[in-house]
Amino acid sequence: RPETKSERVTFRVMRAPGGAAVTTTAPTTVTRASPPPAPPARQTQPVQTASAPTPKPEPPPAPAPKPAAPPAAGALPGGPVAITAVSFAEEAGEGVVKVATDGVARFKAFALKSPDRLVVDVLDGTGSLRPVTGTVQVGRGGVKTVRYSQFQAAPPIFRIVIDLQSAKDYRVEAWPNELRIKLLQ
Description:
mainly beta; 5-stranded antiparallel beta sheet
């Protein structure tokens, strides 16, 4: 290691009685710096290693399922759908509004209050039933009536409104040729 030198120089500035500054220099001292203390020795822990088991070859993947039958002509998923019927049924103690379509329907559902009702808009849906506007009288399963109509012409929206006796939880399922609105117990 090279030698380290340090110097100490002291200056004193004083004012003489006449206002002139006087500078004095103290004697210079040279000292040898001591080496810095060595850092503490590192305590190392043994590292445990484990060898990974040899991977077993994976079985070949199962064959892909066969695709479902294509939807009806002119009713591709996400495309326009025709509504052909609206009905109500009770299944396993739950009320179900069934909306028959000619393809897979895209929808938007929301609940409203005062009075309690559930609204389901079939996007790109057009009513092909006659009359296009109608009401299904229900009076059971917590449902008063089911109303439906062509809500908007461009872009087409077919609206179903379920008038409820009280607020209910619901689930909407889009099947290949049916939209099912289940009113949960």
